[in-house]
Amino acid sequence: MPDxxxxxxRTPETPTAEPVSGASGISxxxxxxxxxATGLVLGTAGGAVGYASAPAGxxxxxxxxxxxxxxxxKHQPGITDGLQARGHLVAFDxxxxxGRKEAAALLRRWSTTAERLMAGEAAPHGDTDVAxxxxxxxxxxxxxxxxxxxxxxGLEKQRPAALDPLPDFSSDHLDKSRSDGxxxxxxxxxxxxxxxxxxxxIQKEAxxxxxxxxxxxxxNRSPGAxxxxxxxxxxxxxxxxxxxPKPTDTDFDRRIFVPDPGxxxxxxxxxxxxxxxxxxxxxxxxxxxxxxxEQVIGRRKADGAPLSGGxxxxxxxxxxxxxxxxxxxxxxxxxxxxxxxxxxxAAMLRRPFSYHDGIDADGTPDAGLxxxxxxxxxxxxxxxxxxxxxxxxxxxxxIRHEASGLFAxxxxxxxxxxxxxxxxxx
Length: 426
Description:
Order of helices and strands: EHEEHEHEHEHEHHHEEEHEH
Mean pLDDT: 88
Helix content: 10-25%
Shape: globular
Structural class: alpha+beta
Low-confidence stretches: 11-16, 19-28, 30-58
């Protein structure tokens, strides 16, 4: 779990998604998005016209329900969006006999479904009404292709070199049945029912073309749960890093997205997602004293500040020593090892979910992190950092990597297109 911060969760006071449009043809879910006492009434010239145009008397949504992410764009949604309260990750394998034609039809169906659901509308076929009373709730759906997809569809020549399988790591205890897959879908929303509704719709639209290989459920802190926006905490109680690349960084796009023209061309504007199910050995971790936990991470637990002093955003002083001459930030501290300047500038955008899948028979919690990181090239992003962690990270004795996947996530679909169209029809 490299020491890079995850996108901050939204709060009702700081929505990042666009409000539901009040244009003609308002959906049965979107019509609920009228202006209420949530600070979303926009009366200034040039402001969004969203909620005020809904029918009089409609019950206003809170800002959590009213947030809307855009399906169409240069990049797919769910990459740079703020953290979402609920997530589902699901991988599919194409059915026997299904090839490029069936895959194209499936991606077309999935894209249509995603566009409708993200707008707060009903699913195109057999809607279950699970999300009838909710707004879009910042729903995002993101689609990617695994290494095996290209062989199944006869597109081996279009497979990116960056999609080569990840190397083995000593901390891996991987369950192959919960790893990889031909197709990958990431679903996120700020309402659990909206997220489940999308998961069910995607599964149903797969039809006979693909079957579920594995599926995982995750969560983050709900928007508005803290007095101010802040870096999220993981299940170890730690602020989960502070060094995520920011879209305002001059080199952000170069590090996170494949340039245009891309290599291959169909990946222009896309990114690569590394997905890891990392189990936290919480019983062992919670036996450590607060001081010991902070030594493992290299940061204060209370506020995420480096042990060398300052606050969460203060640069870490790796050379600072204590009265005995020892490094204040231990040599094997997680935060020291993962710093980009110690890894050839390797950077990735982390956007994970926590998970809890129950209690084992011996009372051990099956809980941890659904680690998701985005980068323009995993061989220059995830791999060098993980290799270094493998060689002496103090945190490694308290975690276990149990599933893994690498997926090529193409750029966003233009209006009238579906995700992956440049690959499947190129």
